[in-house]
């Protein structure tokens, strides 16, 4: 394993290759036989499961319930909302036939031309259309509102350039779809879920994020407003890590979803949708990890503590196990995931390297001398430091250490973001600073033309208009026209 760790491409040499190496060597995921699709391996899926559990709990605490809607969407549904179809048309996978048959020449199987579908089906790229066609039957009056549904599912968007977790043709996600009586309720819902995502990102992923609203050019296809959480990766690029959309009445009108209000009048329902995906795995990796492997926050580590015994004989191993057994039991009672690695087919050094690569937050090593002295060696993955501490009270020490590691990982990422967030006044200054990476705060005149020019000339995009940004007006760095506030620019994934 030590040899494999050395094969990780250093971040300074190629951040992109380092990322690819780490995802595969840490057993998180691998490319599949299907172009652009990935296999999420057990260790990677265990992390995703913990993300799911934490998010699902937060959704249910805010009154949402889970449901499931079809994978296939009639093509005619997608065309009902003009902006929506324009936004997703180039990414759609389309089912045209429902049967295969043997080729006449015996060369294999072919699509049966007689088995053509009456209406072609789109493999779900997102579910607004199929869900709103369903909500039409669920909603008759204001008493049926609000509907607060979430779906855990997979989606397909036919990406041409893919990268594990960050952009794949098929990926896992959750998508909330809610229906409301008033515009104010829907806007409140969209903003509330944005802050649910931000809280999750910062307290669970230990990734600091900036909350904001997208520009018109960058918003979700079919939305009135798109709210976003934006994170900064270690290479200075931004990663959109979650979005929440205020959809207005667009989809209700497209599918004629009306309700009888309290005054007995019919009106269209107000809507939101919001989602995060396995892209969060990419955010987790790129925010914290180093040239030695993964660095995982304890909240998401499938294994939080590993104990590696140092022994020569089976008798030594039994003595160590008997001594450490109460520690294992007490940690588990406290909800700490801990493993005693007594496998005899790997040397301790190999184990140390393996658990370092996989980002296990805390490693304990105990040998004959530790038994005599009543001590244990404790290693932290986040700082790569070691200390010898008394075995007595070790569970209290571990519990506090896990909290310290979680906080330290977050603070390190926050310090990086703050050190790489800069304010500029002129376009020439912007062009110089954007080459250094990071977030740039600058004035913009609010026009799509200026936004497009900046993107074309610098490859930078408006990540968001920060919700808690400086509201001081100014002049656009490009055109000199009035600007309501500074917006957040970056190059992005």
Automatic annotation (TrEMBL):
GO terms for biological process: prolyl-tRNA aminoacylation. It catalyses: tRNA(Pro) + L-proline + ATP = L-prolyl-tRNA(Pro) + AMP + diphosphate. Keywords: Aminoacyl-tRNA synthetase, ATP-binding, Cytoplasm, Ligase, Nucleotide-binding, Protein biosynthesis. It comes from the Bacteria. The keyword Kinase does not apply. GO terms for molecular function: ATP binding; proline-tRNA ligase activity. It is found in: Cytoplasm. This is Proline--tRNA ligase. It is an enzyme of class 6 (ligase). The keyword Ligase applies.
């Amino acid at each position: 394993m030590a040899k494999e760790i050395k094969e990780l491409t250093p971040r300074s040499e190629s951040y992109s290759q380092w990322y690819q190496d780490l995802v595969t060597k840490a057993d998180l995921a691998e490319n599949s036989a299907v172009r652009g699709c990935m296999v999420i391996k057990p260790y990677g899926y265990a992390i995703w499961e913990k993300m799911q559990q934490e998010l699902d709990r937060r959704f249910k605490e805010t009154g949402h319930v889970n449901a499931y809607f079809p994978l296939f969407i009639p093509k005619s549904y997608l065309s009902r909302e003009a902006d929506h179809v324009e936004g997703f048309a180039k990414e759609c996978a389309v089912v045209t036939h429902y049967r295969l048959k043997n080729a006449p020449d015996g060369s294999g199987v072919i699509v049966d031309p007689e088995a053509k579908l009456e209406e072609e089906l789109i493999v779900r790229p997102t579910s607004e259309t199929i869900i709103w066609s369903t909500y039409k039957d669920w909603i008759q009056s204001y008493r049926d509102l609000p509907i607060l549904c979430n779906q855990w599912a997979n989606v397909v968007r036919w990406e041409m350039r893919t990268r594990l977790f960050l952009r794949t043709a098929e990926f896992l996600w959750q998508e909330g779809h809610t229906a409301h009586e008033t515009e104010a309720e829907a806007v409140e819902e969209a903003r509330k879920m944005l802050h649910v995502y931000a809280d999750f990102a910062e307290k669970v992923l230990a990734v600091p994020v900036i909350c904001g609203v997208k520009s018109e050019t960058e918003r979700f296809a079919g939305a009135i407003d798109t709210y976003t959480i934006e994170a900064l990766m270690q290479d200075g690029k931004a990663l959109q890590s979650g979005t929440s959309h205020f959809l207005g009445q667009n989809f209700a009108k497209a599918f004629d979803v009306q309700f009888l209000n309290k005054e007995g009048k019919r009106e269209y329902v107000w809507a939101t949708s919001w989602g995060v995906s396995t892209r969060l795995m990419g955010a987790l990796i790129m925010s914290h990890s180093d040239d030695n492997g993964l660095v995982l926050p304890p909240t998401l580590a499938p294994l939080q503590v590993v104990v590696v015994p140092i022994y020569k004989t089976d008798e030594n191993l039994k003595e160590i196990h008997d001594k450490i057994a109460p520690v294992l039991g007490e940690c588990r009672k406290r909800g700490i995931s801990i493993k005693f690695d007594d496998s005899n087919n790997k040397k301790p050094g190999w184990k140390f390297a393996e658990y370092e690569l996989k980002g296990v937050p805390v490693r304990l090593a105990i040998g004959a001398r530790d038994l005599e002295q009543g001590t244990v060696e404790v290693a932290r993955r986040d700082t790569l430091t070691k200390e010898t501490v008394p075995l007595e009270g070790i569970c209290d020490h571990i519990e506090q250490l896990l909290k310290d590691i979680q906080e330290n990982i977050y603070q390190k990422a926050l310090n990086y973001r703050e050190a790489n967030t800069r304010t500029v006044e002129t376009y020439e200054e912007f062009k110089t600073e954007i080459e250094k990476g990071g977030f740039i705060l600058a004035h913009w005149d609010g026009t799509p033309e200026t936004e497009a020019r900046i993107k074309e000339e610098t490859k930078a995009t408006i990540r968001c208009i920060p919700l808690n940004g400086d509201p001081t007006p100014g002049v656009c760095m490009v055109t000199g026209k009035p600007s309501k506030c500074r917006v957040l620019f970056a190059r992005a994934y």
